[in-house]
Amino acid sequence: MKIVIDGIFFQIADTGIARVWRTLLEKWCDSGFIENIVLIDRGHTAPSLPGVQYYHLPPFNYQEEALFSGKLQDICNQFNADLFISTYYTTPLYTPSVLIIHDMIPEVIGLDLSEFWWREKRYAIVYASQYITVSRNTAKDLLKLCPEVKASQVNIIHNGVDSIFSPASAAEIAAVKYKFAINSPYLLLVGSRLSLNQYKNATILFQAFQTSKDLQKLTLVCVGGEITLESELAALASDINVCLVRPTDLELRCLYSGAIALVYPSLYEGFGLPILEAMACDCPVITCHNSSLPEVGEDAVIYVGGQDVVEMVAALEKVQTPTIRNELIARGEEQAKKFSWWTTATKISQLCLKTIENNKNRPQKQNFTALWQDFRQCQVEELKHRVLLGELEWKNAEANHVIDHLQAHNHNMAGRNAQLEVENKTLIEQIERQNLQIIQLETNNQVLQIELETSSQQIQELSNTKKTIKRLCKKALKKLFAFTGTKIH
């Protein structure tokens, strides 16, 4: 017997669903059931456990879900798998599947069900042979929202509480409080604070703090969730000492044990694991009376309305009353004992064996299998067309980019040409002016040449006149000296 488990959720997030699957695998390692399992490990994100047979794959590509059904079927065929289980809504082509439904949150709170994982969730529900829900409420919602699912196919198997969650000693609590700088009594808020459509509803707790000076003396310790406080909550937290921490499970055990109470005001849950962990650590719980939460808490917790701030303030005051607090701790301790991971793991393994046996004696749904393979093949073709369309759009965008570049270049060249034409016209005008100046200079030069020639002639004439006068003077002197008898020296 072989069961292929796709460990895809370990790639997606390290949240409650990952904790559930990690614990189930650990219990199956302890019981020996792990020998029947092949765990698909995507990108080395699955936990490393002794005795597990891993099949390593690269990280999941969200755009190739249809193609991956074929790959999953190849893996199932390689190991001659009798059953397939996905940690988060992947499917093969024809190997029977058991699907664990942790919640129906997207469908109930009105998320966009055309988004990738919610669409794949719907496909996985259609494909599965058997269903496991973690609460009666989740089973009820599944049957209501997915009418093709038969009640006989739905198996309610509650989550358990890990044995690590038990009351911590005073010294352990003090050490963890010191590490996280918690210097006053505190309330605990575990997990996402708002999440999708704000269904986690932490706003009501922050509003309660705002209305009570006594509550503002306390610290609000927020475990997990966003790394920084959401803007909606930060706007309400000016008078609140908020401490954001990301503890290990051992440290979380101490935080539960030392808290005044866990406040879990969610408007919808598929199970509510923090409630169970808190009760196992002798931590009183305040939560809302909706969805699966009363299944987990029963009469061992204080319930409030999800939108009633006054009721929340009253509950926070009530839980600090010693007699009520002690009664909640005692009831919570007994309630937590009803939930065991050993029981959960055993029931799931038994259901897997039963499903495999039933499938051997049951004729295959040939029509459905053929339709399912056709459906996935159509998705493959659609993907190919999407890829081709994407390539064409990319090439078109590149061509448009080149055209835009050429047009811009042409525009720049046209502008440059116009500028050159202006510069050329200016240069021609300058040359014409210079030519006129040259003509004027040549004319002036000619006039000067004529004047120079005239001057030269006049100078020559004056020179000749000077010579004539000099000769005449000599003659006159000779006559004068001859007349007077004076010799010329």
UniProtKB/TrEMBL annotation:
Annotated Glycosyltransferase subfamily 4-like N-terminal domain ranges read 16-162
Pfam entry (one): Glyco_transf_4
Please provide the record's keywords in A-Z order.
Answer: Coiled coil, Transferase
Positions the record marks as coiled coil are 417-479
PANTHER family, per this entry? Answer: GLYCOSYLTRANSFERASE WBBK-RELATED
Query: What name does the UniProt record give this protein?
Result: Glycosyltransferase
